[in-house]
Write a structure and sequence with these properties.
Layout: H1 14-25, H2 30-37, H3 44-51, E1 65-73, E2 76-83, H4 89-101, E3 107-113, E4 115-122, H5 127-145, H6 147-155, E5 159-167, E6 175-183, H7 190-210, H8 216-220, E7 223-230, E8 236-245, H9 257-273, H10 275-295, H11 300-311, E9 321-326, E10 329-337, H12 351-359, H13 365-387, H14 392-408, H15 412-421, H16 429-442
């Protein structure tokens, strides 16, 4: 090995962790220590708060926090907070919001709000025997055993909605599930769901032990494999949509509204049938979704996993968005499965998360679902609008221009020159380098 493993790294002080990293991996270069420290917050208490969000922290990692204004959603005007490092995401979302603001804006519908979790277990028993035990004894006991856990959630209008026994023995020998659906109201609910499921596992074991329906051999075969929520929530879903008369789709690219609508619909259809395109198409959707998810302190990995699983629910990966042109009316929409919360976790701790939720009017979890679906739909609309008209690079590379110039160490005066230089040109990395070198040589 080229480095020595370390014991007790987590027990070192923050400075101790940094010293070890610099000496072991970075040849003792003090410049790297300065890089880490320059991102520490001067407010000691705030810095400690950030460090306690995770483990083995040595610094903070900044992301741009931008605002996409002019989102008309269900008759209310919003400015969306977006935490994202990719150029053009905030600009594209803002442009789409502005496009639709005088056409009625975005409309949303909460289709369902159920979240899921499973107790996965192995049991060598005839399925009909287990089903009888579940229906006439176990199901009631599971609700009773979790009564204390669900008490507060039930007071808020949520709780366990249903519990089902699922026979998976055709796919794996002796494999069954207790599949439960939950309403967690304004919380994402992971801890609540997992606590209920762990109690299910204990209750299943207890009830089987005392049951007279099973032989001792059958009882001994029981294995509780795991109790865990699912991030695939196909029944926690929101629809966001826009629509207008086709002639209202006027675009400054020079093509007619009719041609724009037809090309746009074709682009969506291609993403519905071609997985290679659908992957990039849905990545663009999640550009918009994840930026607001992160800004509001929610789990973007969970939203990503759920969205992509849903996109492949029929066995082929497809577009999350859809488009129709019917009797001269253009309609574009998304059905997005997404589970988020506005209480618990970072929502009560991270100052910028609290700012984001206040900016959005302190939404309920369902209202935040709507906002997230709209953000994804807007981002996708903007991307497709560029793709079928001017091409994606024209707008994207203009936003990327400053990144290139910063890498070159350009001055503010030089940056302004390049902004003007590319006003009527498509930005390319090669052209920026060429013109930058010409300028420097001329000086």
């Amino acid at each position: 090995m080229n480095h020595k493993p370390i014991e007790g790294f987590s027990k070192l002080s923050k400075q101790g962790k940094i010293d070890w990293l610099i000496n072991e991996y970075l040849q003792g270069n003090e410049e790297y220590q300065n890089i880490l420290k320059q991102y520490w917050n001067e407010n000691v208490e705030l810095q400690q708060l950030h460090e306690e969000f995770s483990e083995n922290t040595v610094s903070n990692f900044y992301m741009p926090y931008g605002i996409a204004p002019n989102f008309l959603i269900d008759g209310k005007l919003f400015a969306l907070p977006m935490a994202v490092e990719e150029s053009s995401v905030v600009a594209a979302a803002s442009k789409a919001a502005k496009f639709w603001i005088d056409k009625g804006g975005f409309k949303t519908t909460i289709i369902n709000n159920e979240k899921l979790g499973h107790t996965h277990f192995i049991l060598n028993v005839e399925p009909h025997k287990l089903l009888h035990f579940f229906n006439f004894s176990l199901k009631k006991k599971l609700f009773e055993a979790t009564d204390d856990i669900t008490s507060n959630m039930r007071k808020r209008g949520g709780g366990i909605l249903d519990i089902k026994l699922v026979d998976k023995t055709s796919e794996m020998p002796n494999y069954y599930q207790l599949k439960a659906s939950f309403d967690t109201v304004d919380s994402m609910g992971a801890n609540f769901i997992n606590s209920c499921l762990e109690q299910f596992g204990k209750t299943l074991k207890q009830e089987m032990t005392i049951s007279e329906e099973f032989t001792q051999e059958e009882k001994n075969s029981l294995q509780i494999v795991m109790n865990i929520l699912s991030n695939f929530t196909p029944d926690c879903i929101v629809r966001a949509e826009v629509s207008c008369k086709m002639e209202d789709l006027k675009d400054d690219s020079g093509i007619s509204p009719e041609e724009f609508a037809q090309k746009f619909k074709q682009a969506v259809t291609i993403a519905e049938i071609e997985p290679f395109r659908a992957t990039t198409h849905n990545k663009g959707v999640m550009n918009g979704v994840d930026a607001v998810v992160i800004a509001t302190g929610n789990d973007f990995r969970a939203t990503e996993a759920c969205a992509h699983a849903y996109a492949a629910r029929d066995g082929q990966y497809r577009s999350l968005t859809h488009c129709t042109i019917d009797h001269g009316v253009f309609r574009f929409w998304i059905d997005l499965p997404i589970s988020v919360g506005v209480v618990g976790g970072l929502t009560n701790l991270h100052p910028l998360v609290k700012f984001s939720l206040a900016l959005l009017g302190k939404p309920s979890a369902q209202e935040l679902m709507s906002i997230l679906a709209v953000s994804g739909l807007a981002q996708n609309f903007a991307a497709l609008r560029s793709l079928v008209t001017t091409g994606i690079q024209k707008g994207h590379m203009k936003m990327h221009l400053l990144n290139i110039l910063n890498q070159l160490g350009a001055t503010e005066e030089e940056k302004q020159y390049f902004v003007n230089y590319f006003k009527d040109k498509t930005v390319s990395h090669h052209e920026v380098i060429h013109e930058f070198n010409r300028m420097r040589e001329a000086d």
